[in-house]
Amino acid sequence: MLRAAHGDSAVLYAGGTELLLAMKEGLGSFEHLIDVKTIVGLDGLTLDAGGALGIGATVTHRQLERSRLIREGFPLLAEMARQVANARVRAVGTLGGNLCFGEPHSDPPTALLAHDATVTLHRAADHRRLSLADFVVGPYEPTLAGDEILTSIDVPPLPARAFGAYLKFGMHERPTVAVAAMLVVDERATHVAEARVAVGCVGPVATRLPALESQLSGVAIAALQNGFAAAGSAGTSLDAVSDLHGSAAYKRHLASVFVKRALAAAATRARTAA
Q1: How far apart (Å, rounded) are the C-alpha atoms in residues 96 and 112?
Q2: What are phi and psi of 75, to 5 degrees?
Q3: Is the pLDDT of residue 3 over 90?
Q4: Other C-beta atoms lying within 10 Å of the C-beta of residue 138
Q5: More confident of the two residues 115 and 30
Q6: pLDDT of 4 strictly over 70
Q7: Which of 29-43, 49-63, 76-90, 174-188 has the lowest mean pLDDT?
Q8: Is the pTM value of this prediction over 0.90?
Q9: By C-alpha distance, which of 81, 207, 94 is closest to 152?
Q10: Residue 213 to residues 53, 109, 219, 255, Cα–Cα distance (Å)
Q11: Which residues share a beta bridge with 196?
């Protein structure tokens, strides 16, 4: 494989929206760029017999945004994709490239965490699968060996009666905080049967909020629409980092506000569909 042959002097290249910017800023220099866009099968969107979604690594944000399959079957992902950066970036930037770059202020990891997504990595004739949380382990730090390539992002089928919302806030194109909330409601659509809440962009990596998710089980949907009190402290446990996007305290506050709003939005969608 070319990556193994050239070692650290080569880097994989797909959309280039992050890589080329880093090179222009002098943050990286490589003798060889290996274009993976021509690899057959990496640009596909597939749905298997069990309803699981396969997203090829070179699928662009624009494809996710416009795909009928995504809009109808995984609407939270489509909602997230519509908010990535700007139209130019969405047209050429790829989901696999985004995850491999590991930019902390990035939309996709947050939404994918709420979907329990996994990634598939290939090297020669071997492959392995990792949860997203085990793949993106730090800022600009994917779990990727020197001769590995990310080939697909795999999303399990959504539970029945699942409703989600993706909200973000930022002064510029990169978000200061991003929240993905997904609620699985009971048969009468009156109470929460399962909840998933992920927060990104405030710290080194996006993260789930398991304590809050447990608190949401059994809560009335109407209570979420009116503002779930426990969500007001959602940001306190986050490993927030002060940077140009705001102080750690500011980000924790924003996270609490947007978790509450995302839960209310998901609850409203659940009641509207009932």
Answers
A1: 12
A2: -60, -30
A3: no
A4: 11
A5: 115
A6: no
A7: 29-43
A8: yes
A9: 94
A10: 24, 18, 11, 15
A11: 182
Q: Which helix (H) or strand (E) holds 122?
A: strand 118-123
The span from the CA of 116 to the CA of 99, in Å, is 15
Determine the average pLDDT of the residues in 52-73. 97
Q: Where in the chain is the domain with CATH 3.30.465.10?
A: 2-155
CATH code, residues 2-155: 3.30.465.10
Contacts of residue 179, Cβ cutoff 8 Å, sequence gap at least 6: 110, 166, 167, 168, 197, 198, 199, 200, 255, 258, 259, 261, 262
pLDDT confidence bin for 141, thresholds 50/70/90: very high
Distance CA 112, CA 101 (A): 15
Q: Which CATH superfamily is domain 162-273 in?
A: CO dehydrogenase flavoprotein, C-terminal domain (3.30.390.50)
Q: What are the tokens at 222?
A: 């109407």
Distance CA 164, CA 24 (A): 38
* Calpha distance 143→24 (Å, rounded): 25
What's the CA gap between 183 and 241, in Å, rounded? 28
Long-range contacts of 23-29 (CB under 8 A, 24+ apart): none
DSSP state of 16: -
Domain with CATH 3.30.390.50 in the chain: 162-273
**According to the model, what pLDDT value does residue 2 have?**
67
Check residue 228 and report its DSSP letter.
-
Residues 163-183: pLDDT tens digits? 999 999 998 778 999 999 999
- Length of the chain in terms of residues written: 274
